[in-house]
Write a structure and sequence with these properties.
Chains A, B: GO terms for molecular function: DNA binding. Chains A, B: This is LacI family DNA-binding transcriptional regulator. Chains A, B: Keywords: DNA-binding, Transcription, Transcription regulation. Chains A, B: InterPro entries: HTH_LacI (IPR000843), Lambda_DNA-bd_dom_sf (IPR010982), Peripla_BP/Lac1_sug-bd_dom (IPR001761), Peripla_BP_I (IPR028082). Two copies of one chain form a homodimer. Chain A has about 350 residues and is an alpha/beta fold. The first copy, chain A, has 13 helices and twelve strands. In chain A, helix 1 packs across helix 3, helix 5 packs parallel to helix 13 and helix 10 packs across helix 11. The N and C termini of chain A lie far apart (about 85 Å). Strand 2 of chain A pairs antiparallel with strand 2 of chain B. The structure holds a DNA duplex (16 and 16 nucleotides).
Chain lengths: ~350, ~350
Amino acid sequence: MAETARHPEPRYGNRPTMKDVAARAGVGLKTVSRVVNSEPGVTPDTERRVQEAIDALGFRRNDSARVLRKGRTASIGLVLEDLADPFYGPLSRAVEEVARAHGALLINGSSAEDPEREQELVLALCARRVDGLIVIPAGDDHRYLEQEIKAGIATVFVDRPGRIDADMVLSDSFGGARQGVAHLIAHGHRRIGFIGDQPRIHTATERLRGYHAAMTDAGITVEDSWVSLGSTDPDRVRLAAETMLSAPEPVTALFSGNNRVTVTAVRVLAGRERPVALVGFDDIELADLLGITVISQDAAAVGRTAAEHLFRRLDGADHAPARVELPTRLIPRGSGELRPS
Amino acid sequence: MAETARHPEPRYGNRPTMKDVAARAGVGLKTVSRVVNSEPGVTPDTERRVQEAIDALGFRRNDSARVLRKGRTASIGLVLEDLADPFYGPLSRAVEEVARAHGALLINGSSAEDPEREQELVLALCARRVDGLIVIPAGDDHRYLEQEIKAGIATVFVDRPGRIDADMVLSDSFGGARQGVAHLIAHGHRRIGFIGDQPRIHTATERLRGYHAAMTDAGITVEDSWVSLGSTDPDRVRLAAETMLSAPEPVTALFSGNNRVTVTAVRVLAGRERPVALVGFDDIELADLLGITVISQDAAAVGRTAAEHLFRRLDGADHAPARVELPTRLIPRGSGELRPS
DNA sequence: GTGAAAGCGCTAACAG
DNA sequence: CTGTTAGCGCTTTCAC
């Protein structure tokens, strides 16, 4: 086991390189490269000999070197809030499928809704020179990214606009919330509560705006106590809901701002005697059986669209940054059609 | 915009390199490297000048080159079945958290339960020289991986054993299923149906084995028509369930082999007049409100454990491959406590 | 405290 | 059809 003094720790477990393969096959380095990359200009016989050496040695091309030379990593980064959130699973999978179709791998990171962590992740991805980046912004200051984008890392913002000039794929939060609240109003409600995510988050405020729009359309004056924005922590949401429902003049319906809020709201309502109407933003698995009326957005479509835009950029498209807004859909299942008691 | 003839396409959008920074700061290349990597031996004054050049140029270290030199990519690969499956979201997130704590990024890929695609993914990850690999096997032949493992890519198999000698983290599928079926038997059922995933999948057969064990323990002879293995496609599961429930001597209870099967089973049962008992493997969001009794496995714990094992290997542990089996937990919520009608 | 030189493993360019 | 050379941007080594 005599190792050279220069490399006391064998790299990559001493994997064979193209040079080793070339030596064993008795050909030049470039010929091996040709075989490995299926480039033309190698006789079947030479190819066979090279292939044998590859198999015998267990050679596997080192993509790090390749990347360094070619300048493309064939990988894209996806920074989202939380991979464990059922909304982001399908989104992520859709991005992955598109990436796969383009021969790229997906590096995934969760920001946990922390702007610093988002930046840290994005910059790490940039240092890896991912070809492109799909970001669901946690923070609202993306100046740190401008440099990177200018330097050539294609970027698409998803779900929330990124405050800088780049492609964007969003769901129609405003319109969806407005429709959902209008639906409750149409069923006789006037005292409607809104429980949403932190106001720092764009979708949260957009949905709140939709709520206000629907209320205003109906000539209803919103009382402060009907609105609660904050973390989606179950305890926080539970308290907010209980408070609205136990007030002297309680709300008769709730609009929940996203899937995390909805599941807690459903649990709270399940524990109460008087039925309270509910419409939630985002569909949830088994919501059909529970009869939960929702505003559904297609997470997979969002992811797919974003990824397609990204690869269009990578393939050279250089039109002005596009802003795509995907429609939402109201799915009535019972909870949103309850009348005030 | 006169570019050199050799590089018609600017790499990385012509990003500055350490050399550029060095030139601008009027120092040597190595000094820049020292500053970038916070190595000691640089005067505060020099450091400041270098830092200024870095900021002015918008320099960001190219990790591809670093990786090539250092032999470690600070990234790990996770190959699972489907990122969109609610079981894998939390698992993936848990892996990511551990990776993050070790300064590594996560490259994620879905095999879609296709052995070829699994292999393709794994080999792509190996070519990138990920430091480690967590694989939820789709296929059952992993000889292609032996070479890679020998070459130094630490590997942990998750959820299903990988048929080769490596670390493994599993849930107790056999024990969990046995307990779940025994629970149904304890509530008076004898004609119990089992609907599971494809027999190619290890957990599917383990859970079936658990079913048989519980039935045997109770002296019940299982009839062929009570067992159905196959894809988790809703149509397939629906048909299987309907068939068992509509037989001349119908089953009075169902055990569903995973979360995908359970959601369809719940829908089928919801549409029937006579109540049928159900216990499902894997917990599901809102299952509490629907009163679904489940055998719960902690996806996050599985992911965390696997990742911790992996990094222990990467940090030099070289004990014999370990096999960890995580316990499951029966959560009675009503559907499993129904008596035969 | 600092820097020049070599080289990681590969691909681009160019000769033969 | 094949091989040689240079160099991607960084870290390592070693000399100053």
